[in-house]
């Protein structure tokens, strides 16, 4: 979460009705980068909802909790001591920005994300980030479940091969080792798990602007979303 004025923590989930732009899509579709740039252009807050699933997974792995222990994992999420400060993601004051990007944490996040009790806990937390002047939130269910009244809902896709290549570049840049074939396999598995789960499966929200970014630059996608916002905002 980058706040217009410094860091931001979750507040009262029922506090406000600041406008929301929801950007959902599959793994490595570019939604994080795009959502951050849209937020920067509008001077709004940014919420990386996937980071909350990753933080919960990291907290569970560190606590030695079984990844199928729904009650324990939901309890960890309810008390998640998270703080976003620019690019920095903190868990109980510790900078875990890099730790949460490790592939094994992403895999664990995708697995625990199937749990209804965890999703309910994190939805309430996410709603607390809806603060003026507005919020750009990215994830899987921002437009379908967490912010159903979002002003604009975007569903961002790209071909699996293109997404695997983007993720490969990202991981190498962050100092993780990864190979393209294994990333493509993991990405297809993650897509299947995210799309087929019973609770909040990945799918475009009704009325969503569906954008396939395979042949578009990040700036072109950002422009399209900001233009849509200006058009609707009158
Ligand atoms: O980096 P990537 O797009 O793969 O994942 P992420 O956005 O950091 O989210 C990590 C995992 O959390 C995803 O694989 C999803 O299963 C889950 N997630 C979710 O279920 N709902 C969200 N709103 C965000 C993430």
Q: What can be said about this structure in brief?
A:
With 234 residues, the protein is of the alpha/beta class. It has helices at 31-42, 49-63, 70-78, 103-112, 116-127, 142-146, 160-173, 180-196, 218-233; strands at residues 20-24, 45-48, 82-85, 88-91, 94-95, 135-139, 152-157, 209-212. It has a five-stranded parallel β-sheet. A three-stranded antiparallel β-sheet has the order 3-4-5, with helices on one face.
The helical percent reads 40-55%
Classification by helices and strands:
alpha/beta
- Assembly type: single chain
Succession of helices and strands: EHEHHEEEHHEHEHHEH
Query: Which residues form runs of ≥5 with pLDDT under 50?
Result: 1-6
Spatial strand order of the main sheet: 2-6-1-7-8
Please give the number of β-strands.
8
Biggest sheet overview:
5 strands, parallel
At the third CATH level, what is the topology name? Rossmann fold
Total domain modules: 1
Query: What is the end-to-end distance?
Result: 27 Å
What is the C-level CATH assignment?
Answer: Alpha Beta
Please identify, by name, the CATH architecture.
Answer: 3-Layer(aba) Sandwich
């Amino acid at each position: 979460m980058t706040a217009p004025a410094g860091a931001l923590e979750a507040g009262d989930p029922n506090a406000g009705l600041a406008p929301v732009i929801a950007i959902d899509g599959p793994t490595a579709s570019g939604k994080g980068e795009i959502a951050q740039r849209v937020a920067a252009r509008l001077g709004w807050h940014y919420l990386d909802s996937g980071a909350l699933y990753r933080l919960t997974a990291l907290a569970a792995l560190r606590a030695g909790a079984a990844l199928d222990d729904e009650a324990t994992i939901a309890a960890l999420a309810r008390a998640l001591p998270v703080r976003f400060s620019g690019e920095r993601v903190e868990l109980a004051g510790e900078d875990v920005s890099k730790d949460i990007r490790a592939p094994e944490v992403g895999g664990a996040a995708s697995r625990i994300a199937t749990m209804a009790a965890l999703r309910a806990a994190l939805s309430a937390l996410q709603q607390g980030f809806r603060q003026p002047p507005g919020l750009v939130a990215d994830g899987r269910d921002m437009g379908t479940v967490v912010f159903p009244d979002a002003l604009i809902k975007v569903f961002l896709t790209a071909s699996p091969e293109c997404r695997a290549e983007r993720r490969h570049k990202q991981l190498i840049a962050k100092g993780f080792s990864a190979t393209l074939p294994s990333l493509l396999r993991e990405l297809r598995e993650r897509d299947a798990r995210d799309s087929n789960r019973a609770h909040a499966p990945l799918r475009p929200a009704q009325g969503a602007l569906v954008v396939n970014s395979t042949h578009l630059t990040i700036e072109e996608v950002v422009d399209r979303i900001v233009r849509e916002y200006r058009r609707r905002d009158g």
